[in-house]
Amino acid sequence: MKQYKYLLFDLDGTITDSESGITRCVEYALNHFGIQVNDLRELSPFIGPPLMDSFKDFYNFTDEQATIAVAKYRERYAVKGILENELYPGIKELLAQARQNGKTVILATSKPEIFARRILDYFELSSYFSFVAGSGLDGSLHTKTDVINYILEVNDITDRDSVVMIGDRKHDIIGAKNTGIDSIGVLYGFGDYEELSEAGADYIAEDIPALRRLLL
User: Fold this and answer.
1) Which of 68, 120, 121, 142 is the most exposed place for a label (fewest CB within 10 A)?
2) Closest CA to 120 of 6, 13, 16
3) Residue 202 appears among annotated catalytic residues
4) Are 110 and 140 in contact, with CB atoms under 8 Å apart?
5) Considering only CA atoms, which of 144, 147, 152, 149 is closest in space to residue 170?
6) pTM score
7) Integer Rg of the chain from CA
8) Residue 162 burial (CB < 10 Å; 0-12/13-18/19+)?
9) Other beta carbons within 10 Å of 155
10) Is 165 in contact with 173 (CB distance < 8 Å)?
């Protein structure tokens, strides 16, 4: 196992269990279009991928409809959904230990950066992160590949062997592959072993203690 210097963490499904907030906000957006959802668990595939893509992929929305849906989602998310969220047990201690061990901890999320920073502040995690990168409300840094490339460029990280992306969905793994860095898929989030292995994860951690063993 390599000793990585730069640890890039996904947010939803990796640091926080955000299922309640995200699915309720997706439901709110769908209701705007007259779409009723019987079981919020049906909306869990929205956790992780860019929202625009999910509305188009799962509900065949046009670009215009998806843009409206994202706006409706954020209408509720900014007020309620952002805090319908909880930390995975042990993740705060892992982040603290990583910093103590000299690792550079960076947030790499497809969530808008402005929301990601609010979540880190709310859970008192901001001090563990040397850099926070997320998408823009204007649609910039749309994919995880975009986010990782941005992180590498702005932080002048040239040794890609020293970097690892940690996330729970295939988009994290694909983003890592597209940018030439290693990846760790975690099974305690919203992806499963099949999704992560098929995407090409270099390592898979079943829980946070297993992730700690891989990183530290």
Assistant:
1) 121
2) 16
3) no
4) no
5) 144
6) 0.94
7) 17
8) middle
9) 15
10) yes
- Structural contact between residues 190 and 19, judged by C-beta atoms closer than 8 angstroms: yes
Alpha-carbon distance 210 to 205, whole Å? 5
Tens of pLDDT, residue by residue over 137-154, are: 998 999 999 999 999 999
Q: Hey, what are 156's tokens? A: 């002048």
Given 10, 12, 146, 168, the catalytic residue: 10
Average of per-residue pLDDT across 12-33: 97
C-alpha pair distances (Å), 94 with each of 34, 109, 158, 168:
43, 18, 25, 16
Q: Please give the pLDDT value at position 108.
A: 98
Of 6, 12, 215, which Cα lies nearest the Cα of 131?
6
H or E stretch covering 61 = none
> Which run of H or E residues covers position 93?
helix 91-100
Across 113-152, where does the E strand assignment appear?
131-135
CB within 8 Å of 63: residues ≥ 6 apart: 52, 56
- Give me the amino acid identity at 95: L
> In a 3-state reduction of DSSP, which class is residue 148?
helix
Reported in sequence order, the residue ranges of 113-178 that DSSP labels E, i.e. its strands, are 131-135, 163-167
